[in-house]
C-alpha cells in the first residue's frame, strides 16, 4: 500500500507544471505553435481548436516538452546538482537509464534546453558533468534537440562575447557517481548562514501563502527571454531570435506589436518608427501568425541588422483616418491598411419579388 502511494506520488511529481497564461494559445486563437505536441514521445499532449491539454496517464514526465516551449509555459522539476569543482561550479546531471538514483538524476538529459543552460550560467555554473544511457535505444528518441547540440550553440555565443564557455564531461555512471559523492556544495551555498537560510525559507512560505490566497499572481516569476540571459556585450553579437520585417510588404497595421507579450516590437511616436528589441524575443511566432501580409519572420542566431523601421504619417484619402506605414511600402500609399483591403464603393443590392 505504502509502496503504491510512493510510486503514485513520484509519478505526480514528474508531471510538468503548466503556466497556461504564458502559452501562445492563451494570447491568440490562431497561434500555430505545436512544439509541445510534436516533441512528446508519448503523444501525451493534445491540441485542437478548443483546447490544449495533457494526458497525465500517458505522460512519463520526461520533460522534453519544456525546453521547446518558447514561452516557458511548461515547467519540470528536474534539476542538475550543483557542486564545487576546484575554482568553478559545475552542474551534475545523469540519465535515469544509467541505473543511478538520487540527486541529479533526470528522466532525460535532453530536457535541459537553451533557457536552462543560460540560467545555470547566470548562477555561476561553468561546467557540466553528465552520464547518459544509450540514447539510440531510448524509447523517447523523437524530434528532440540533443543537449550536446544546445551546449555547442551556447558556447559559441559565449565565446563570441568573450566570456568563458561551459566545460563538458560525459562520464561513465560509476565515475559520475564518484564525483557526486566527493564534490562538495558550491561555496556560495556553504556560506549561507543559518539566519539567512531561515529568512529565505520564511520568504518562500509567505510568497506561497499569498499566491494560494490570490493576493499574488501564480506566475509571479516573469519568464526571461533567452536573449536577455546572455552576457551583455558592447559589440554586435548573435541573438537566439531576431524578428525581420519586410518594409516593402508591411502595411503598418500594428498587429505585431499589439500582440507581442515581451514588447519586442513597439511604436516610437515621437520619432516615427518601429523599434525592434531582438533581445526580448522568445521566438514564439505570435507576430508571424497575426501578420496578414506575411511581412515578418524570425531568424535564429544572427546579429540584428535592422533595429529601427522608419515610418511616415498621412491621412487616408477614403476614410480620412490618420495612419502610418513604412517608407518603403510598395502598395498604395494613399490608403490605410483597412481601405487597402476593403472596397467601400461596393453597392448592396436586395432582390424583391
TrEMBL record:
Keyword Cell membrane found: no
Organism in which the protein naturally occurs: Thioploca ingrica
InterPro entries registered for this protein in UniProt: 4Fe4S_Fe-S-bd (IPR017896), 4Fe4S_Fe_S_CS (IPR017900), Fe-S_Ferredoxin (IPR050572)
Coiled-coil positions: none
Name of the protein this chain belongs to: 4Fe-4S ferredoxin iron-sulfur binding domain-containing protein
MF-aspect GO terms: 4 iron, 4 sulfur cluster binding; metal ion binding
Stretches assigned to the 4Fe-4S ferredoxin-type domain: 50-79, 241-270, 272-301
Annotated keywords: 4Fe-4S, Iron, Iron-sulfur, Metal-binding
Any Pfam family: Fer4_7
Amino acid at each position: 500500500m505504502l509502496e503504491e502511494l510512493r510510486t503514485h506520488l513520484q509519478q505526480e511529481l514528474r508531471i510538468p507544471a503548466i503556466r497556461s497564461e504564458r502559452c501562445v494559445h492563451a494570447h491568440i486563437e490562431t497561434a500555430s505553435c505545436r512544439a509541445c505536441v510534436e516533441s512528446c514521445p508519448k503523444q501525451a499532449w493534445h491540441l485542437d481548436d478548443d483546447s490544449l491539454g495533457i494526458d497525465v496517464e500517458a505522460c512519463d514526465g520526461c520533460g522534453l516538452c519544456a525546453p521547446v516551449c518558447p514561452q516557458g509555459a511548461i515547467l519540470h522539476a528536474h534539476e542538475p546538482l550543483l557542486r564545487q569543482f576546484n575554482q568553478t561550479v559545475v552542474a551534475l546531471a545523469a540519465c535515469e537509464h544509467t541505473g543511478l538514483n538520487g540527486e541529479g538524476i533526470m528522466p532525460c538529459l535532453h530536457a535541459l534546453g537553451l533557457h536552462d543552460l543560460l540560467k545555470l550560467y547566470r548562477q555561476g555554473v561553468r561546467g557540466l558533468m553528465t552520464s547518459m544511457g544509450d540514447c539510440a535505444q531510448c524509447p523517447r528518441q523523437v524530434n528532440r534537440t540533443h543537449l550536446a547540440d544546445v551546449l555547442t550553440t551556447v558556447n559559441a555565443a559565449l565565446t563570441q562575447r568573450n566570456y568563458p564557455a561551459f566545460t563538458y564531461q560525459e562520464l561513465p555512471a560509476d565515475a559520475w557517481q564518484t564525483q557526486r559523492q566527493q564534490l562538495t556544495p558550491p561555496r556560495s551555498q556553504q556560506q549561507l548562514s543559518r539566519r539567512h537560510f531561515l529568512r529565505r525559507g520564511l520568504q518562500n512560505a509567505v510568497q506561497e501563502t499569498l499566491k494560494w490566497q490570490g493576493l499574488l499572481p501564480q506566475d509571479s516569476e516573469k519568464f526571461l527571454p533567452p536573449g536577455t540571459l546572455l552576457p551583455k556585450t558592447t559589440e554586435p553579437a548573435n541573438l537566439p531570435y531576431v524578428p525581420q520585417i519586410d518594409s516593402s510588404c508591411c502595411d503598418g497595421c500594428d498587429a505585431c506589436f499589439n500582440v507581442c507579450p515581451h514588447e519586442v516590437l513597439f511604436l516610437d511616436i515621437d520619432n516615427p518608427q518601429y523599434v525592434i528589441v531582438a533581445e526580448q524575443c522568445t521566438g514564439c511566432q505570435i507576430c508571424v501568425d497575426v501578420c496578414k501580409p506575411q511581412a515578418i519572420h524570425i531568424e535564429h542566431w544572427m546579429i540584428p541588422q535592422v533595429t529601427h523601421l522608419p515610418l511616415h504619417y498621412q491621412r487616408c484619402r477614403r476614410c480620412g483616418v490618420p495612419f502610418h506605414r513604412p517608407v518603403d511600402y510598395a502598395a498604395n500609399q494613399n490608403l490605410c491598411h483597412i481601405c487597402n483591403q476593403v472596397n467601400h464603393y461596393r453597392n448592396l443590392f436586395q432582390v424583391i419579388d
